[in-house]
């Protein structure tokens, strides 16, 4: 078990988080590769190798793993190699078979909800872009953790009606958004930009935290740009701890 006794979120890098609820810590969306070890996301405005930045010097101590979806910037070969194959691993049902094929022995797909160490975990919907591109990128999920605090990890999604419905249903204390306005050479952005983050900020009284920036070649919205164009949004640096 982890030794933390207070709820917190630590941004590791990109969408990789250490989410602690009470005394239980979840490693979310582990992308653990060294800089430049993964190829660029194709059909994007630049072709830099990923990740663009190193891992911060933080200890990865956790009780379970949660993967919102299996795109390489949320679960990569380095994570596959580094994780204990017996770790409890929560995922969307569509990804169960791939994790079993990877050799993980305690895969726990969540259809609607599950309980772990007294924490209730709900899977929530997401829309990874617009129109046909969103269909191509699907399926993706978010997750809500209910314990001493209620945390909503929205995952790779834009703002749309079901995000508003999730906020209303769970009334979270903290919302973590994947920003960066990731995009391809065609179509609209596939993760949140300024307008999406602002819409979430206006829809909830929760603490709003924005991550998923400056680490992958097709995430073009920077932290400074998001800070300059939003209000009351926490935008942590890699490795930063937010105590809830």
TrEMBL record:
Pfam families membership: Lactamase_B_2
Protein name in the entry: MBL fold metallo-hydrolase
Residue span(s) of domain Metallo-beta-lactamase: 12-212
Cited Gene3D superfamilies: Ribonuclease Z/Hydroxyacylglutathione hydrolase-like
UniProt KW keywords: Hydrolase
Species: Haloferax marinum
One Gene Ontology MF term: hydrolase activity
């Amino acid at each position: 078990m982890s030794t933390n006794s207070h709820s917190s979120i630590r941004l590791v890098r990109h969408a990789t988080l250490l989410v602690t609820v009470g005394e239980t810590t979840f490693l979310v969306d582990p992308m653990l590769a060294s800089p430049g070890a993964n190829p660029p996301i194709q059909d994007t405005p630049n072709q830099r190798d990923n990740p663009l930045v190193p891992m911060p010097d933080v200890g990865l101590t956790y009780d379970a793993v949660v993967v919102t979806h299996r795109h390489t910037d949320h679960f990569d070969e380095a994570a596959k190699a580094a994780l204990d194959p017996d770790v409890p691993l929560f995922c969307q049902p569509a990804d169960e078979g791939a994790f079993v094929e990877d050799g993980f022995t305690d895969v726990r797909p969540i259809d609607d909800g599950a309980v772990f160490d007294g924490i209730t975990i709900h899977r929530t919907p997401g829309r990874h872009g617009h129109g046909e591109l969103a269909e191509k990128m699907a399926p993706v999920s978010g997750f809500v953790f209910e314990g001493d605090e209620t945390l909503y990890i929205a995952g790779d999604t834009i703002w749309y009606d079901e995000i508003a419905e999730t906020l209303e249903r769970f009334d979270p204390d903290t919302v973590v958004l994947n920003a960066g306005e990731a995009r391809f050479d065609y179509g609209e952005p596939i993760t949140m930009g300024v307008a999406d983050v602002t819409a979430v900020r206006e829809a909830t009284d929760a603490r709003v935290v924005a991550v998923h920036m400056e680490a992958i070649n097709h995430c073009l919205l920077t932290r400074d740009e998001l800070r300059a164009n939003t209000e009351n949004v926490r935008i942590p640096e890699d490795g930063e701890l937010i105590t809830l």
